[in-house]
Amino acid sequence: MLKRLMSYGDLVSMRKSGEKKFNQNKVKVSVCMTGCRALGAEEVYDEFRKQVKKQKLQDKVEVIETGCQGLCARAPVMTINPPGAFSHRRIFYGRVTTDIVPDIISSTALKGEVINKLCYAAAGKKIPYLKDIPFYSKQKKIVLRNCGIIDPKNIEHYIARKGYEAFAMALLDVDPNYVIDEIKRSGLRGRGGAGFPTGLKWEFCRKAKSDIKYLICNADEGDPGAFMDRAVLEGDPHAVIEGMLIAARAIGSEKGFIYVRAEYPIAVAHLRNAIAQARELNLLGNNILGTGFNFDLEIKMGAGAFVCGEETALIASIEGKRGMPRPRPPFPANSGLWNKPTNINNVETLANIPVILSNGSEWYKQLGTKNGTGTKIFALAGKVKNTGLVEVPMGTTLREIIFDIGGGIPGRREFKAAQMGGPSGGCVPAEHLDLPIDYETVKEVGAIMGSGGLIVMDSDTSMVDISKYFMDFVQDESCGKCVPCRVGTKKMLDILTRITEGNGCRSDIEDLKEMAYVTKSASLCGLGQTAPNPVLSTIRYFMNEYEDLLKTGS
Amino acid sequence: MEEKTIDLRPVSRIVSGYGNDKDSNLIAALQQTQDEYGYLPKQALKEVSRLMDVPLTRIFGIVTFYSQFTLIPRGRHAIKICTGTACHVRGVNEVKQKVKDQLNVVEGETTADYQFTLETVACIGTCFLAPVMMVDDRYFGKLTTDTVTGIVDRYSGDYT
Q: Is residue A343 part of a domain?
């Protein structure tokens, strides 16, 4: 049973006792228990618990279940940290199996000896310490600051890492306008894809006059190939809740919703647990921290419709309707959920907020580029060695992400393109590998920053097939409300199918371009407006592949 | 749709759990109803309509819009094969074909013995394990045409 926090002092004393507990003189064995579950992490974790109990090592070894540790390619992964706070001597192991658990305890946990075969290897060299592994050393973890470190099901861990203190500051020390100004100064832009300045969005909503205002966290991560939000929700749910509390204070909202995909059962479970704990501690509910501020949260589960990532469709879905978008304006900031002013932010955006407030906008602005401050999380997947979750400052190049962090392409094949931004994005070819990534630069080369899915493709991947793949997806997910999207995507899919089957003709390319233009310019929402991007970018960079297929046709 | 009468008590229990805020909880109530019956029987939908005072047409509009809902009974185990981008580039199509052959169904269908329903999902967010599938709430990653058959077999005989 947790004690209700009735003042800032209560929060600080909880943090202090948490710090002591968190950094005590025990070896910390941290096992990823989210994504790694797919490859047996639960069994490994259970075995650690069993062994520690059996060998009566409870005073020496602490087994922690964590969220995503990033290097998913090595799943199941874990780290072992010598007694005390996290240090440079944290050892990283991958592909851990239950039978080797006793060995890890006796040699690594108790004696500090490294088991070579479990270490990350690059160029034939084993790298035991996490800090030396290029995958980690080139990253900058801000949003993922706690991910893989804390137990996401334990609010004490989050508080021990100064959790909820940024919110306490926003609530007790400063005016809501200051919070909004600070977020504006930081240059933070929405991480869901479109990149709208977050502070400005908040300001619109704050200025809207209404008795009730709503706050929504968009956790309907639907882009195929994207798992950033999933990792944040699973690995550090309190960071999102704290971000929402700060946003609620800033815009003046007492009621929030988290709209999360039903396909993410672990994320939903961790969120539910985190909300319950925050309520128990009086960080959600009425009279938060004894200040009279009220805010509560409710989870809404998506029911499997990609278009619900679009904000007006998402609102319709929360209202219990078919998730179909409506024209804007009015923007949700003025008339959103149940026609009340509503502010919608994405998971990653919200998880940035506490860090910006704690460290200040000046600090935040130093990271990244002029047009894109801070960091961005990318979900690195496809034909790349180190698939996983990567957080880098904006302005990092694709080459650094794919080759330095990602370890390059497996086998002897060559890099062909990186697909960025999912069905709304495009394929970036090798000639742009050295482009520093931010919102504008990516747009110039025909892709979009998007939510952060980054799929690497090698010489084996057919770009026309990829173009057809995405068109198939958006055609299927088009809600059907507006004609350009409903018919345009279908027509483009027909043409692409024809081409890939070898039945295309010369005029097909021109038809595709024209259809793309119409769909882009006349569709009602972002889904249709961006749906042609994969087609256009593959035509732009890989026209030769279309031509090869056309040649085989009639 | 179905002749046999079903027990509608779970529906009233579910609906009463949502109190007065009915509009916004309609989807959640339908999700829970589907969890209860494994699908959405016509009688249950009529009962939701009656108890929540929502026209059946609107309910039908919702359940046919969202891909999560199904109006026909499903198998004991749901196999969800991910067809996301990463899985696509890593060869999920061959894996999918193998499962289809093994179970003798196509996407969206249920096996004759109601043991499995085969579905595809656009992405389950575990791209690092591509190609990947879920059986009920469990993930299986790095699938090959060789390993997938054994995984499905594991679920063939159990009645838990």
A: yes
Tokens of A352: 């940035």
Alpha-carbon distance of B17 to A1, in angstroms, equals 26
**A228 occurs within a structural domain:** yes
| Pairwise CB contact (< 8 Å): A453 & B141 | no
* Structural domain harbouring A195: 163-363
Taking alpha carbons only, the member of A390, A74, A353, A76 closest to residue A228 is A390
B23: number of Cβ within 10 Å:
15
Q: Are residues A42 and A94 in the same domain?
A: yes
**Cα gap A416→A419, rounded to integer Å:** 10
- Which among A86, A85, A65, A87 is positioned nearest to A76, based on CA atoms? A65
Q: How many domains does chain A have?
A: 4
- A441: domain CATH number is 3.10.20.600
**Closest Cβ opposite residue A303 in set B31, B80, B142:** B31
Shortest distance between the Cα of A310 and any Cα of chain B, in A, equals 15
**3-class DSSP state of A294:** strand
Tell me: pLDDT of A545 over 90. Answer: yes
Do A508 and A469 meet the contact criterion of CB atoms below 8 Å apart? no
For chain A, give the percent of residues with pLDDT over 70.
99
Scanning every residue of chain B, which has its alpha carbon at the shortest distance from the alpha carbon of A34?
A: B126
Distance CA B90, CA B144 (A): 10
- Quote the CA–CA distance of A17 and A236 in Å, as a whole number: 20
- B59 domain residue, yes or no: yes
Give the pLDDT band (50/70/90) at residue B5: confident
Q: How far is CA A332 from CA A201, A227, A326, B70, in A?
A: 10, 26, 11, 31
What is the DSSP track for A425-448? SEEEEGGGTTPBP-HHHHHHTT--
Which strands sit side by side in the sheet containing A78-81, from one edge to the other? A61-66, A27-32, A78-81, A91-93
Output the pLDDT for position B160.
Answer: 45
Tokens of A505: 């003709």
Backbone Cα Rg of chain B = 18
Does residue A318 share a domain with residue A196?
yes
Predicted TM-score (pTM) of the model is 0.95
What local confidence, expressed as pLDDT, does residue A553 receive? 54
Question: Which residue has better confidence, A364 or B74?
Answer: A364
Across chain A, mean pLDDT equals: 95
Q: Report ipTM (2 d.p.).
A: 0.89
To the nearest whole angstrom, how far is the Cα of B135 from the nearest Cα of chain A? 11
- Subunit contact A230:B26, Cβ cutoff 8 A: no
Residues forming a β-bridge with B73: none
Total residues found in chain B within this entry? 160
Question: What is the DSSP code string of chain B?
Answer: ---S----HHHHHHHHTTTT-HHHHHHHHHHHHHHHHSS--HHHHHHHHHHHT--HHHHHHHHHHSTT--SS---SEEEEEE-SHHHHHTTHHHHHHHHHHHHT--TT-B-TTSSEEEEEES--S-GGG-S-EEETTEEE-S--HHHHHHHHHHTTS---
- State the residue range of the domain holding B44: 9-65
Domain termination site, one of A317, A339, A363: A363
Give A515→chain B minimum CA distance, Å. 23
CATH number of the domain bearing residue A488? 1.20.1440.230
> Does B82 lie in the same domain as B150?
yes
